[in-house]
Every structure is written in structure tokens, then in C-alpha cells.
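Researcher: I've been going back and forth with a colleague about how DUF241 domain protein might be arranged in three dimensions. Neither of us has a model we trust, so I'd like an independent prediction. The organism is Datura stramonium, in case that matters for your notes. Sequence below.
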Amino acid sequence: MASFSTKSNNRSISLPSRSHPATQKIEEELNKLKTWEFSASPTAEAVHNGLLGLVEVHKCMGDLLNLPLTLQALSQCQNKKWVNEILNKSVRFLDICGTTRDLVSQFKENVKDVQSLLRRRKGDLSITNYTSFRKKMKKDAKNLVTSLKKMDHEEVVAVMEVDQLVSAVIRVLREVTTIGISVFQMVLVFLSAPISKPTSKWSLVSRLVNKGNQDRVNEIESVDVVLSSLFKCGACEVEKIQLVQSKLGTLEAHFECIENGLDNIFRCLVRSRSTLLNVVSCQ
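Model: Here is an independent structure prediction for DUF241 domain protein. You can compare it with whatever you and your colleague have in mind.
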């Protein structure tokens, strides 16, 4: 198990670490995420919970930024280069979030196509389109992870001579960015699960559906295995098709939750960016 990455080697910020009453709630939500752990192969439940936690963090951040006291303090801050730093990363986050959401939506459509194919059970059974998209999804997800890692190692603007509230706000905004990088890395690692191939007809499938192993298997990888087994063997036995349909239905439900979480985060990012743009415009 590895904990969320909440540090970057290039982070030397000239800000005090003292809390401020106005930032207490968001710091509590951040601390919850900081204590979470995830495996090298996160489950759909872990991904969904991570997104829910990040949504709560962004809601608290929105509340903080819209406090009259916060708006006044930030508008009076002379050096706003740190705002541009946050805004720059917010644009990239929006792009990554939107692309990730598109991947999730497209995967759901591919799952529906396979479900339709199984219901018909006519002609040659083929999952070529599904397999091709899975390869594309894996490649795109890995590219996004690379972008996140670059973002996490960028230098930050030094901020000095600001009052306690402003310094506390800047600090939590940067922590929100850092924890957001960690959560999105987890989402993308989940999406880039290995495209598994069975070693024999149904031996690996039997192992995957064993109750003792289910919690340790990435749901996408599990579906890949049962699909590959079914279509590779050209098997149409009712019980095997029902097993695949059940797993596909569960996976589709998981992805619906993940897509909703990404939608909520996207809206939060847009609102936070709008508030920061207002701060920049106040001279």
C-alpha cells in the first residue's frame, strides 16, 4: 500500500504553516484525503470514494474563497503572481478532468455495445472494438498521468509579506492542487489497468470469481479476463454469458458513479476558477 503523494521535491514555499479559523473546514477535509491509502491496482470503490472526498474539498474551497473576509483580504494583496500560478494549473486540471470524463463515458458505451452483443448471441462473437478502445484508454490514461507528474514537480511562486489569512488561503489552495493530482492519478491508474489475457480457457475466470479474490482485482481487468475467455473460446453457454453480463452490469454501474464524480469536480473547478479570476480583476 502507498499513501497519497502530498509532497513535491520542488516545494519550498515561504508561507507559515499556521492554520486560520476560516480555513479549518477545508483543512479537515484535506486531512481526511491525506490519510487515505490506495494500492497499485485501485478498485472502483476506492476511486469513487476518492472523487467524493475531492468534491467535498472543492466545495469547502469554494465556500472559503467566497467569504467576504477572504475576498477582501485577497483583493488587497498586492502580489498576485500566486493566483496566476493556481489559475494556470486549474486550466490544465479542467482539461485533464474533461478528458478523463470522456474516457469514462466512451468506456461505458463500449460496455453497452458488448452487452448488446451478448443479448443477441447471433453470428460471430467479437470484441475487437472493445479491445481496441481498451488499448487506447490505457495509452491516454498513462499520458495524463505523465502530465500530472510534471505538474506536481513544477516550481511554485514565492509569496512573502502577506497577512495570516492570505497565507493560509494560498497554502490550502496549493494543498488542494497537490491532493487533486494524487486523486486523479488514482483514477487514471484504475483506467489503465493491464489488458489481461487468460492463460487457459476458464481457469483464471474461476479464480477471479472466487469470493476471496474479488476485492483484490481491478474490476476492468476482471471484465477483460472473462470477456477474452468467453469470446476466445467461442463459448455461448448460458451460465458463462450470465457471468459476463453480471460483471458488465456491475462495471457499468461503477463507471456511472465515477462519471458523476468527475462531473461534480469539473463544475467545482469552473466555479473556483471564476472566483480566482474575480480576485485577479480586483486591484
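Researcher: What would you highlight for our discussion?
Model: I'd start with this: Residues 1-16, 198-205, 211-215 have pLDDT under 50 and may be disordered. After that, consider the following. DSSP finds ten helices and two strands in the chain.
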